[in-house]
Design goal:
- This protein is α/β, with parallel strands linked by helices and about 425 residues long.
- It is about 30% helix and about 25% strand.
- The protein contains 13 helices and 19 strands.
- The strands form five sheets. It has an eight-stranded mixed beta sheet, with helices on both faces.
- Strand 18 and strand 19 form a beta hairpin.
- Helix 1 (about 30-35) crosses helix 8 and helix 3 packs across helix 5 (about 110-120).
- The relative contact order is 0.10.
- It binds cytidine-5'-triphosphate.
- Cytidine-5'-triphosphate (CTP) binds near residues 312, 315, 316, 333 and 346.
Amino acid sequence: MDPAGGPGHLRSATVVLGVAGGIAAYKAAELTRRLVEAGAHVCPVLTESAERFIGAATLSALASEPVRTSLFDEREPIPHTSLGQRADLVIVAPATARVIAAYAAGLSSDLLVATLLATRAPVLVCPAMHTEMWEHPAVRDNLATLRRRGVHVLEPDTGRLAGGDVGPGRLPDAARILEAAEAALAAAAGRRQDLAGLRLLVTAGGTREPVDAVRYLSNRSSGKQGRAIAAAAAERGAEVVLVSTVPAEPGPRLEVVPVETAEEMAAAVAARAESADIVVMAAAVADFRPKAPAAVKLKKRDGVPEIVLEPTPDILAGLGAAKRAGQVLVGFAAETGDVVGEARRKLQSKGADLLVGNDVSAHEVGFGWDTNAVTILSRTAAVEVPLSSKREIAEAVLDAALLELRAARGGPPGRQGEPQT
Ligand code: CTP
């Protein structure tokens, strides 16, 4: 593992970091620092308007590399092609609606877009803009065009935007951009395709159980671990369906099915489990839900409501009971006490093949964090995975699931990808 916690593709990679003119441009400083820490050689390219938001001197000091802004540089006569040719990866963060449009249309209006058009390296575009712009069909269409051409697009976060509005459009934090950069480099390196021919069904996030028209019961799950598993599996060649309560980015071989409640998740899983070779229940499914959610908003003047709860369906246990031969079921257990004991109990009681236990009371582990530390239990073994990025945990879980699948089918999985009879 490299010091930054990633799988290490960024080490020694030449990364052109394009910064466009949005308020999130100031975050490029932190991103540059993290890329350098991960071992990358960063060449910052700023658009003219980006320079209004962040000083070139800041980025150049952090990158130990001069910042480039102009197509007409006397030191380097043809920077637009030389930069693109040298790059192992081009990241655009933040990417504004204008840069996205120019890139999609092939308009080399400045050094950044010219570099994007001149490179054969993988490109990661990280849009950040006001919600109205992000949701505009012109932006959506341009991004769809870029995706179709193989450009990696990291969806923005939802949160507070410039001017105080709240909505989707925020630049994701540096850790997520680094994770996506590692993934883009890994995909470009033609990484192992050991899950090719297999179908994976993955769930992610905490379910939301309505109390009334505006309130719900939920939990602290961020869905990051489930999302990381789905993304890693798709990169390793699997056909993946991610049933998720949190927004997730679809991609090549990765379909996203949004759900909200345990019941919706149960239905989405039931419709797809039969054909799945591996099912990973990483979601934090509510165990109880309000029995009779109010269709309207409950009013304070009507007094404190008595909320009667009823159990939700146990999706994993249901899958365990109906499991067909040659299918692998993976459960998760987020615990605050005896992690291994509880994980072992759930492995047996739910009929799972693997149970991934983590201690959510520990620092930097589990809900909300970008890192995790887990124990992967099978019926015969326990594998400890120390504090690692959720991406690396995802790879370890997939490795363990593949081993189980091979054991269950008695041969390499690639040739056994068809549904069993
Ligand atoms: N799970 C599920 N359906 C539920 C509850 C949990 O499929 N209604 C799955 C989770 O996705 C996870 C595993 O079961 O993979 C364990 O979840 P957890 O909440 O830890 O288990 P519980 O059965 O709720 O156990 P307990 O309340 O005793 O901790």
